[in-house]
Amino acid sequence: MPQSSPTAAEAWQLTAERASEAALFFDFDGVLAPVEDDPDAVQPVPAVMASLEALAGAVSRVAIVSARPVSFLRDRFAALQHVDLYGLYGLEVLHEGEIVTVPAAEPWVPVMEELAGRARAELPAGTLVEFKRLSVALHYRTNPDQGPTIERWGREQAERLGLKVQGGRMVVELKPPVDQDKGMVIGEAVKELGCAWYFGDDMSDIKAFDALRAREAVDPKFMGMCVAVANPETGAEVSNAADLTLDSPHAVADFLAGALPAFAR
Ligand SMILES: O=P(O)(O)OC[C@H]1O[C@H](O[C@H]2O[C@H](CO)[C@@H](O)[C@H](O)[C@H]2O)[C@H](O)[C@@H](O)[C@@H]1O
Q: One of this protein's Pfam families, by short name (predicted)?
């Protein structure tokens, strides 16, 4: 944790004072939703919904920045009118009700289809192959012993097809070789802001933390708050990069509800 980090209460107060130039960004899995064996079964913590919508009305912007497709996020957050959605590490964004894809990624859809089929045929039984149109995630949460085999297979395929590899919690994901990640999404989004928070739990979220640090470095008046959500899989790496750590998605819900009074006028 950086020496000069404000306390959470101080940071919320400052965010409320600068509400018109403040934004809050959230990862999805492990942050707004508890981790489960079946990725399709995951739902956000119910208590988080009202806080997200209330905060979206209080600050300049609230957005979810996830590795999930936007269509998945839109289903889960249909009740929220004012929360922006970035999917597939920013390869997709929901813009005026339409899912917009980074054009350079589109030609990779057939490659990903072929890869998902090959993964289902070649990987050990019990491997969960999640086809996300523009990426393929190979999950080994329910058969961790096969993790090294699945990781190795994924890296070989990435080399064969010229894809990027993204590690995660009991998963290896293959993505198109397109320059886009959570750090780039956040770096772009905070250019004109006075303060921003990012809540993350996984390796890909560290790039988003770095983007807030980079913004602080060029503008010392900018306040970036990096919040880690603890988990046994990424261990200390994410927490060490954060200003503060919360215990679970349920703790995130409590933390956000506790912040709302700072925005009451
Ligand atoms: O960027 P995120 O929203 O955090 O997405 C990261 C990955 O989340 C999902 O996988 C993780 O959560 C699953 C459901 O709880 C869990 O079973 C799995 O072990 C985790 O890695 C999602 O399925 C992946 O596609 C995302 O890349």
A: Trehalose_PPase
